[in-house]
Amino acid sequence: MNFKIRAAKKDDCKDISRMIMELATYGKMPDEVKISHKELERDGFSSNPFFQCLVAEVPEENKSKEGQGIGKSLMSKVAQLGKEKQCMRLQFAVLDWNTPSLDFYVAKGAQDVTASEGWHFLRFDGEALDKLANEAED
């Protein structure tokens, strides 16, 4: 294993932002990215953070290589940290056309609840989020 998994630091936010954009581009949705590295810094590294993040430290000569187990190691570490905090499930979304990832997760034991339980992931954003928030009573 030629990499190290560690908790992200504020200084990592530019790289995290870049990787979010790379994932969105891979997912054919680069216009959907609505967060900047400054917002990541604010939201993840304040006195009351909204999220935690892990990063893999990978030597430069290995950064473009696949099949090193980095993704599996990151997922395993997230699962370990979740279990330590009494989490009962790890839930995430995968695009329906991304069969290599779907196959990987299912092989690891993930359940595709879209088919088995009929769940749909829904989102409020933009004007719809504004409208819903404006309906709240003070």
UniProtKB/TrEMBL annotation:
UniProt keywords, alphabetically: Acyltransferase, Transferase
InterPro entries per UniProt: Acyl_CoA_acyltransferase (IPR016181), Diverse_Substrate_AcTransf (IPR051016), GNAT_dom (IPR000182)
Pfam families tied to this protein: Acetyltransf_1
Entry's Gene Ontology molecular function annotations: N-acetyltransferase activity
Domain annotation N-acetyltransferase: ranges: 66-105
Family statement: Belongs to the acetyltransferase family.
Protein name per UniProt: Spermidine/spermine N1-acetyltransferase family member 2b
Species of the source: Myripristis murdjan (pinecone soldierfish)
Gene: LOC115371415
